[in-house]
């Protein structure tokens, strides 16, 4: 990145105002208020089967995001046979987010131009913008400009993605709302209004926010054992809520690692466990990961000293300097 480049992190959006998307702003605000009301009034009244159904849907939808659009279609960190790709597309529909194409394009732009005006959810603009505010505004001109340069051919060559793109709205209605709401009343006589608010609102809103935390909290709070120079951090809370996506400092250094983390295969990383399970079935294969030596060198050269096993060279130099001062004293 050269001096004066429009992607310089000091670049201002002055003169390039983004307009408020009122439909998004009003709908996002309204559904969050309804979710808050439902959590207080309805959640304590639902049957335990409905609660477990909500947890299942949360994991399924989360896996569609973490294992599907993120690790498979965006980063190509592993390969998947068509049955698994279909499962991932269905799970992604359960999450109720955007199309696979739009999600992958935005995330590839995010990685390529992280924390610049070309980053759709630039965390340098604050927690609220990175979390949800970016969805309430038209895209920054740099996002549109540089987004057009992202190669998406590999994604659109997948027939599963093409099918999902063609029937996106119908699939979202069926798998994010219709089935989740209908199952509790039909199978264990839950009240329809409780199911509609619990599964159609609370479960949906919580799933969105858990995913958004990766863009916001995991770019602001936490340590940086792999690269102290970048914004993404290691955030345990986000890792728990987002099925293993909170180990974000590591992920931005090694985005092609199918684990999206280093500290143990299943340490607060359910997505990795599910991918490994499908690997045993032969549906996931060519799982990519760096060598231990590669990770160690990276920690020593660029880490902030917080890695539990290896120390950064900066820390070693500082410690030697302190020892020298003590001896001179």
Strand content: under 5%
SSE order: HHEHHHHHHHHHHHEHH
Give the overall pLDDT as a whole number: 91
Distance between the termini: 44 Å
| Uncertain regions spanning at least 5 consecutive residues | 1-15
Q: What's the helical proportion of residues?
A: 55-70%
- What general outline do the C-alpha atoms trace? globular
The Cα radius of gyration reads 22 Å
Largest sheet: 2 strands, antiparallel
What's the total number of strands? 2
| Helix count from the secondary structure assignment | 15
The domain tally reads 1
Global structural class:
mainly alpha
Strand order of the largest sheet: 1-2
Tell me what the structure shows.
It is a single chain. 42% of the residues are buried. Residues 1-15 have low confidence and may be disordered. A two-stranded antiparallel ribbon has the order 1-2. It has 15 helices and 2 strands. The radius of gyration is 22 Å and the shape is globular. The chain is mostly helical and 329 residues long.
Short structural description:
Residues 312-323 have a biased composition (Basic and acidic residues). α3 packs across α9 and α9 packs across α10 (192-215).
């Amino acid at each position: 990145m050269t001096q004066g480049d429009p992607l310089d992190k000091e670049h201002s959006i002055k003169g390039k105002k983004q307009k408020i998307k009122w439909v998004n702003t009003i709908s996002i605000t309204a559904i969050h208020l309804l979710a808050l009301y439902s959590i207080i009034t309805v959640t304590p009244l639902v049957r335990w089967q409905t609660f477990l159904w909500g947890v299942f849907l949360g994991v399924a939808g989360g896996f569609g995001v973490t294992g599907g659009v993120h690790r498979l279609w965006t980063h190509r960190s592993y390969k998947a046979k068509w049955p698994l790709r279909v499962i991932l597309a269905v799970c992604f529909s359960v999450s109720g987010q955007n199309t696979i194409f739009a999600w992958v394009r935005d995330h590839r732009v995010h990685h390529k131009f992280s924390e610049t005006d070309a980053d759709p959810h630039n965390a340098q603009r604050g927690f609220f913008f990175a979390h949800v505010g970016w969805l309430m505004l038209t895209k920054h001109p740099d996002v549109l400009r540089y987004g057009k340069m992202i190669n998406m051919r590999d994604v659109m060559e997948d027939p599963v993605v093409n099918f999902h793109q063609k029937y996106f709205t119908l699939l979202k209605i069926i798998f994010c709302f219709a089935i989740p709401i209908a199952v509790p009343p039909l199978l264990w006589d839950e009240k329809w209004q409780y199911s509609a608010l619990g599964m159609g609102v609370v479960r949906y809103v919580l799933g969105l926010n858990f995913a958004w935390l990766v863009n916001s909290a995991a770019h602001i709070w936490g340590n940086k054992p792999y690269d102290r120079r970048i914004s993404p951090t290691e955030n345990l809370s986000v890792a728990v809520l987002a099925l293993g996506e909170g180990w974000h400092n590591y992920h931005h250094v090694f985005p092609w690692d199918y684990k999206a983390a280093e500290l143990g295969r299943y340490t607060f990383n359910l997505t990795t466990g599910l991918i490994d399970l499908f690997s045993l079935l032969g549906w996931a294969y060519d799982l990519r990961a760096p060598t231990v030596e590669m990770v160690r060198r990276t920690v020593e050269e660029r880490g902030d000293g917080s890695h539990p096993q290896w120390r950064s060279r900066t820390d070693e130099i500082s410690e030697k300097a302190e020892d020298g001062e003590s001896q001179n004293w």
